[in-house]
Amino acid sequence: MPLRAWEWVRRVNWRPWLLGAYALSVLVVAIPKGLHHSDNNFLIFDASFRNLRAGRDLYAPHPDQYIDLFKYSPAFAVLFAPISVLPETLGIVLWDALNTMLLAVAIVRLLPDRRGDVVLTLTFLEMFGSMQHSQSNSLLAALVILAFLALEAERPIRAAIALAIGTAVKIFPIAGAAMALAHRRRLRFALALGIGLAVVLALPFLAVTPHEVQAQYASWITLLPRDAVSDTIAGRGMHTGGVPELAHLWFGVRSSPFIIEVGGAVLLVLPLCARWKQWADPDFRLRFLCSLLVFLVIFNHRSESPSFVIAMVGIAIWYAASVPDALTISMMAATFIIVSLGASSAVPNAVRVGVVMHYRLKTLPCVIAWLVMQAELWGWRVPRPSPPALAARWRARRASEPAS
User: What local confidence, expressed as pLDDT, does residue 181 receive?
Assistant: First the structure.
């Protein structure tokens, strides 16, 4: 690129354009879906509260309403109620807008400078793909980032609320509680998270009788392990299964996915526990956030192709907050090409389905990037400068009142 053109690119304020693209994508995707009743995922969410109020088993098949099964918590049905009472098109627009724009806001708050623009750009395709299926993945990524920011600002209750809501949507955001280990008010956070989970999970009591709530939770708990066994190995459709399925498909490993997930969780938190003297380093905490976001996808035996927006956000933040070198650039390029472009309509269907999806290639660059992040948490490479906003928060934190 000529020097003058590069200088022009650097001087332009891309933030309004990027946020506008995120907002416009909601209208482009959501309105046609609503007009043509074409999104099965939204139909599942939309019917959940009505089924709960009617006393129907949320986790039984309802072929007259939608395909597949409702697999979220009973609390999610109540959380979705304000959208389910709206006309379908408006409901889809608001749901997709909530997912998309909350993620954009979280990224901008985390990296308010040009690095935030880089992350918005690199994650756009994955966000767009998740939104096409009206998935909740962008919302979950945003809630984890907002919980991180709340902990950085010494707001453990806000962090607990964000993670409690995320856990009610899908269980795995509870892993974000590990971020509190690096903060002084971890005990207050643990108490707030326990109360927050209890309150959120008790929301169905506002809609139905205690007996019905008990039956719904019993049905949900029964469904989870059965659903995991049916779809984990040799998954179908959009399922990638993360590391458990990759290990089976590539190496013939038939170990329980839960064993692999527990092993991954141990590897995730081990550097956080062993290198506790680094907790005061904003860069260390930020890299742990990135590692956590990737972990939530690659060690999830129920991960699907749209789930990878969470991992892409983590890798893009890691890249944007790093000093660009051969490793970071090559890792980001490989991830973007395989994860975002490789699974999109930009490549021939034979390659997308027969190679990328068949061999679960979306998982591979994310696993490699996660291993690099973990190695950095162990001190493998020279620490990089932390984002100014995080460093400023830490300095202000150190000057505030003593730990409580």
Answer: 95
Question: What token pair was written down for 202?
Answer: 């008790």
In the block, which residue shows the tokens 């995120």? 22
39, 47, 61, 69, 77 from 64: Cα distances, Å: 15, 11, 9, 12, 18
CA separation for the pair 342, 364 (Å, rounded) = 12
For residue 59, name the pLDDT band (cuts at 50, 70, 90): very high
- Quote the CA–CA distance of 126 and 341 in Å, as a whole number: 9
Tens digits of per-residue pLDDT, 26-47? Answer: 999 999 988 877 788 999 999 9
> Which amino acid belongs to residue 334?
A
Q: How far apart are CA 285 and CA 89, in angstroms?
A: 40
Residue carrying the six token digits 């892409």: 312
Can you tell me the distance from the alpha carbon of 103 to that of 300, in angstroms, rounded to the nearest whole number?
Answer: 21
Residue 166 and residue 193: Cα distance in Å, rounded?
A: 12
Residue showing tokens 């009591």: 205
Lowest average pLDDT, out of 69-73, 134-138, 231-235, 375-379, goes to 231-235
